[in-house]
Amino acid sequence: MPQAILHDIRFAIHSLRKAALSSLVSIAALGLGIGVSLAMLDILDATAVRTLPFVEADRLVMLRATDEGNIIDWFAGPDYYDYRDRADAFESLASILAYGDTYTITGRVEPERVAGTTVSANLFSALQVQPQVGRRFATEDGQLGAPDVILISQDLSVRRFGSREDALGQSLTVNGSPYTVVGVMPARFHFWTEVHIWFPMRPDREFAADRRFTNWMLVGRLASEVTRNQAQSQVDLIAAQLQDAYPETNAQRAVLLDDLKDALLEDHRVGLLILSGAVGLVLLIACANVTGMLLARAPTRSQELSIRAALGAGRARLCRQLLIENVFLAAGGGLLGIAIASLFQGVMIELLRMDRLAVADWASPPLTVLTAVALTLMTGLISGMYPAVHSARGNIAQNIRDGGRHSGLGGNAFRSALVVTQVGLSVVLLVGAALLIRSLASLYAQDVGINPRNTVTFEVQLPPTQYPDAAARNSFYVELFGMLRSVPGVQSVAMTTNLPIRHYGNMVPAAVPGESGEVEGAFIRGILPGYFVSMGIPVLLGRGLMREDGSTQTSMMDAYFNNPGGEDVTGPPRPAVISEALAQAIFPDGNPLGKHFELTFGSPRQMEVVGVVGNVKMNALDDDMLSAVYVPYYQFATGRMGIALRSAIRPASLGGQIRETVWSLDRNIPVEGISTMERDIAASLDDRRLMALSVALYAFLPLLLAGVGLYAVIAYYVAQRSHEIGIRMTLGADSSKVGQLIMWRGARLVCTGIATGLLGAIWLSRFLQGMLFGVMPTDPATYLSVTAFVVLVAFAACAVPTWQAAHSDPSAVLRAT
């Protein structure tokens, strides 16, 4: 028996080498199907099957705030302390700031900005996570007056101190204040948001003292023997007590307890379900295509199999022989699939936006050998069983006489329907991808309102302890402005609190008192003189801002923090330059120069228009919010400054000089994100680019498989009609006539698939309306180009069997058949 199997293996290798092209195509088809399936299976295992990577994760719950029945997820800091102190259903109840921030790290090596967040002192004990070195936060660390301590990531410990052990007990200067490192977290530790620094939550910090601000996510570990329903009853009682005690902020606020993993997965379930179905479909299509190719080879092998049967080989032996050949094909596809899976896993994680779940860390790249082997064997059996059984059951005498012309293998209608379905699906996805790509091109062509060419961009953040007020920050940036202008190769300097496209946000209401003109949100930007000229923003009316503008008035920023709800009693109206869009919105009836309007920044601030400039796309290229107010930097002196240098030399060569110039003023200030304005604009489209490329990728997969299936159908058609083709050519039919006969067979299938796909695309493209820019969902050029591309792929798939049939020797064909 083992000797017979070895003989079958050698014979299988010989047979596959004889049909090298068909074998390679089969391996490629199976590799794609296995690859995407393995990637998706691992993601599903990491998210839907495996528990969270924490000890006794089934006891972890997420407390979700609700307001009038609507889930808002986050809690106020004082609410957290109330639930923590009153609820005994939890072994531990912890909190984490729902969003991260960036902090300036100085000392020992070059300054840098790193992501960080604030957590309750008991978060890591609730998760049962232990630092690699050092300790977790203790209860005392979260109390008022406690020494300033932090936990840091392993990456940060290596960058700043050389190793984890060397970091322990060291002082790290964060935003100008010293913190003692008490622990280094495990490598790649990730919970909720990816950060490198964790601060302990205290009642007087980070919005923890104000019930108006809901900024905290609550995570609890249920006490032993306590069920979720029991804990829910307890927090319901506490929520009712808080509603009575604080009606202004907690009147309709309640709590919903969810399993932590279910809560984290909630936004991804539909996407996981859709991708799972799509991936399963791709695998089945791949198997069906390989089945079709094996059936296409069956007529040419039926005489060989019949002779072997006549010489004594039983049907079981023949079936085994064919299955071994297919397992070899599947093994090749499995090896290729593992390589493809490593790529597709990252693509799928990006597509699903699962960074909050840290799936990239939970999943196991590459995939487990056991899963890969099981999937490979399964695809080999699925795709090979039908051809093997039918080939082994053929009529021996009939096959020997007819040379395989009547092999009895059916399924041609099924394979034809499969090709039509694949082509149609490909057309739908390709139309979607083409529309998204054309939309992307339209966005690239948009006028941003600035001149991005030859412009280097970066940002600087001043530590609040060294630069506590607007005067200190203004003085630093004015001096830096002059020094940057003297850097060789720099033609001009632009400084603003928020660079266009790169930094979004900071919007305030603007209105004319007593008039109808009002905008709910206008971008407010603090700038230094020369900003408009350097950025290429045209001044349409009046003038730009000068250094003297508003320099004798109290900074709006300082006035807001010192008296956020007070009246603006700091002198006459403040000078401002407004965008053309804002001028048209609040001064629709005349020249706005010299007129007054109000900005609601804490309280109404009186502004006077001294100039009107062109519109600039502040947030994104597809954003139609163009209302903007520009004020002297002194009036809106945030710690962060976005800087753009227009250069006469290659922008990439300025990085070192920029750092040295900033560090010559203060060595502890990091220079972040040196880039170019053109690169910033391109980066703003990353999400759209990812979506377009992902859809295109998933369109090409079924199109490639459709090409494989079409090749199999045409090859099978040629094999079945080889005797007829030989007679036609013997009677004088030239090769072109034979080629037309065969190509027409493929054309009918492709045209049917294209027509079906175009109808589906027209119906489904309306759902893309909100994602498109500058292109209609039914754009004719897109549909024509997709049709032409699919026809080209189909022609390539039909070309090989057509060419072989049209250039075959008629006498040889007749002798063989």
**Chain-averaged pLDDT:** 77
Low-confidence stretches: 359-367, 395-401, 403-411
| Largest sheet data | 6 strands, antiparallel
Helical element count?
A: 26
User: What is the radius of gyration computed over CA atoms, rounded to a whole number of angstroms?
Assistant: 35 Å
Strand fraction band?
15-25%
Shape: globular
Helix share bin: 40-55%
The count of β-strands is: 24
**What structural class results from the helix and strand content?**
alpha+beta
In whole angstroms, the N-to-C terminal distance is: 35 Å
Describe the structure concisely.
This protein has 817 residues and is of the alpha+beta class. The protein is built from 26 helices and 24 strands.
Structural notes for this entry:
The protein is of the alpha+beta class. Strands 1, 2, 3, 4, 12 and 13 form a 6-stranded antiparallel β-sheet that branches. A 6-stranded mixed barrel has the order 5-6-11-8-10-9. It has a 6-stranded mixed barrel with strand order 16-17-22-19-21-20.
